[in-house]
What does this fold into?
Amino acid sequence: MNKELTIIQGAVSAKEFSNLLKEGKPVLLKGAIKDWKACKMWDLSYFKELPNDKLFVVKGADLIDGETTKMKLKEYVSHLEKFIEGKSGKDRPPYLHDVGMFNIIPELVNDVSSEYIKEYLPKFYHKNWWKYVQFFMSVKGHVTPLHFDTLMTHNLFFQVKGTKRFTLIPWNQKDACYMKKWRWSEVDPNNPDFKRFEKYADVAPVVVDVEGGDILLMPTGTLHHVESTSFCISFNIDWHSKSSVLKGMYSYFQGAPKQNFMYNFYMFLAIWIKVPEKYIWSYYKSYLSYIS
Ligand SMILES: O=C(O)CCC(=O)C(=O)O
Ligand SMILES: [Fe+2]
It folds into this structure.
């Protein structure tokens, strides 16, 4: 067993999950969601045929500072199909990245079971967990550079289709990762430039392939670099526990942007003071597009 990553076959109970979370290490639950309707049915043609004409924001090669474009889901899927069939040369299509998909197409929630979500997440999330989902659709070669999730949330990552290679680095090694703009690392873990980033030589990343049907838990502050090694559909829930929300608020004093304090404060009210979601959500909406 890798000492920085716990790998478990299948799902775990709520109690086991909470013990694992306390250990503060990433956890891979192999095949935990393989029986979900989504894992069986979601593919390009499924999304192409959804009756939906809304515009989706997609991101170009530079996820951090680059341009975004808006397109209909059908149009986006056609770009992916063309790329997969080798008809668009080397030009990789944009990345559908961090999209609040279940807010846009709520019917998709029927393909997903809320079982683990309800067992693993604090009560605050149980009713409307799907509002907090961020969705990803990608092809081989799409990469999210090394970063941690901005609000210091835990991340429950559901890999529905395809394989993503995660490079994981614990929070306590972030100072050797040459951070910029609060959450992004300058290092490319696939090809680290040790001349420029000397301290990175001391970092011990864990590389793990997360396959369709798996859940990956990344505890608060885990740095991650994510590379699609095939066509992929995934989604995550960035969520707070009682301790991570305090860490999130404290991060303001470690250099996090001012907005982060505000969003984390709303979550503090929700998780600690039990302010009902209806009072939080309207302030919280922009968080979905803010976080990345
Ligand atoms: O899947 C990806 O490309 C990025 C995932 C990620 O950064 C996240 O879930 O926070
Ligand atoms: Fe992330």
Q: What stands out?
A: The domain at 6-242 is CATH 2.60.120.650 (Jelly Rolls).
